[in-house]
Amino acid sequence: MHRRLRPTIAGCLAAVALAGGAQAQGSAEDANKSNNPLNLAASFNIQNYYSPSLFGSNAHTNDLLLRPTLPLGPNKLIGVPQIIRGTVPVSTRPKADGSYETGLGDINLFDIFLLHTEGIQIGAGPLLTLPTATDPSLGTGKWQAGVAGVVVDAKPARLLGMLVQWQHSFAGQSSRPDVQSLTAQPFMIFNLPEGWYVRSTGTWTFDLQHGNYYVPVGLGAGKAWRDGSTIFNAFVEPQYSVLHQGTGVPRWTIFAGLNMTFGK
C-alpha cells in the first residue's frame, strides 16, 4: 500500500471503531439525517475510496474526498431550498515508471434545488467540474458542466434513493480528449438500534466518451451518534465491481468515511 494512504484509511477505520464505543446515543433519525443528501443542514464529510485491485493492472488507486455542504433557504429570486455541495479530491494514481502521483484532483460543485419535500424528496440542479488537478494523471484538464438529480425515500426503518450526475467537457486543454461521463449512486441504508445501520452505496461509473464503465456493489456498516448539536456518522463499506469494461477500473474498493452534520 502506498505510504500516503495508510493514515487516511486507518483514520476512517478507527473512527468506526470509536463509534461503537461512543457514550452518546445514536438513533435511526440521526442516521437518516446524516445519510440523506437532501437533508437541509450544513455538513462536512471526509470520505475515502481505496481500490487495492484494478482490472488488468497490478496497481492501486486512492481518492480522499473532502465534501462541504451548505443549505440555502428560499428567497425572492428562488422559491425553493437549495443544497450546494463541493467535492475536493486528493487522489493517488499510478505512473508509467511504477511510482505513484498524489495531489489535488478536479474539484466538483453542484447546486441542488429541492423540488419536492413531502414523502419522496426530489432535487435537481446544475453541476460544474473545474480542472484543478495538480498533475495530468489526476484530472481531465477540461472544464465540465452538466446536471445532477437526487431522489430520496426516507422511513424510520430505512433510507432509499439515488444520486445521478451527468457532465460533458466544454473547454480546457486542447491536447486532452473530450470528456463525457455518467455516474449513478443507488443507496440502500437499513437502520438498526442505537444509530447502527447496514449500507450499500456503490457508485456506478460510465465513461460515455470511450465506453468504459464499472458497476460496484457494496455491503458495509456504520454508526451515527450525536454530540451536542452535531451528528457524527462513521462507516466502512467494501465494494466489488460486478460488471466492468476497460482496464484500470476498480475491481475491489474499500469506501470509508466520517460525516459530520451540524445544527440539526
Summarize the structure.
It is built from two helices and 15 strands. The longest helix has 15 residues.
Describe the structure in your own words:
The protein starts with 5 loop residues before the first helix and ends with a strand. The chain has a single domain, classed as Porin. The chain has helices spanning 6-20, 28-35, and strands at 43-54, 61-72, 82-94, 100-104, 107-116, 121-130, 142-154, 158-172, 180-191, 196-200, 204-207, 212-218, 220-227, 230-245, 250-262. It has a 15-stranded antiparallel beta sheet that branches. The chain is mainly β and 264 residues long.
Write the SSE topology.
Layout: H1 6-20, H2 28-35, E1 43-54, E2 61-72, E3 82-94, E4 100-104, E5 107-116, E6 121-130, E7 142-154, E8 158-172, E9 180-191, E10 196-200, E11 204-207, E12 212-218, E13 220-227, E14 230-245, E15 250-262
Number of strands: 15
Q: CATH architecture, please?
A: Beta Barrel
CATH topology: Porin
Q: What does the main sheet amount to? A: 15 strands, antiparallel
Structural shape: globular
Would you tell me the overall average pLDDT? 91
CATH homologous superfamily title: monomeric porin ompg
Weakly predicted, low-confidence segments:
1-7, 19-23
Helix content: under 10%
- What is the SS-derived class? mainly beta
Task: Give descriptors for this structure.
Porin; 15-stranded antiparallel beta sheet; 2 helices; 15 strands; globular
